[in-house]
Amino acid sequence: MYKLPFMGIVLLLGGCTFLSEINSTSQPLIEVKPILASTPSNIEQLEFSVYQQVNEYRKSKNLPPLKLDPNISEQSRIHSYAMANGKVAFGHGGSEARFQKIRQFAPWREIGENVAFNSGYSNPGKEAVEGWIESPGHQRNMVGNYDFTGVGIVRNAKGEYYFTQIFVRKQ
């Protein structure tokens, strides 16, 4: 098994996505259901672990915890699936469409997104969160003025984990 240099990928991206009240036309989202290479319960545990780690980090900065929203998590999962299976390039492609989809069920004032991928680690969720903390743009989302979040993780057949976390401040 090999390890992908997570921070190299984070630095290559140069940050993360953040929008406030976008008003643009966007392409429809890719409507797919994740097919996971890991068992769903393991992935769900990993998603919850990432959610808890981000809230622990927020607590260390005297910030309130984020509430986990299953609809936001589903949109995060769809994006992770698309990246893991080569439907979209690794990154924030299609974020405006995702954000507009989220607006349909959770009107928001601000929204942000962190993505990561890695392979070969015993605790891939911890590696992703630590990478986000070390990246100024991603860390800014983690401590932003948000109140809800969703986490979606997909492991592809190669054993690579793709992470998407969306942060939402509702209206």
TrEMBL record:
PROSITE patterns: PROKAR_LIPOPROTEIN (PS51257). CDD domains: CAP_bacterial (cd05379). InterPro entries: CAP_dom, CAP_sf. It holds the Pfam family CAP. Gene3D superfamilies: CAP. Residues 53-167 form the SCP domain. PANTHER family: SCP DOMAIN-CONTAINING PROTEIN. This is Allergen V5/Tpx-1-like protein. It comes from Planktothrix paucivesiculata PCC 9631.
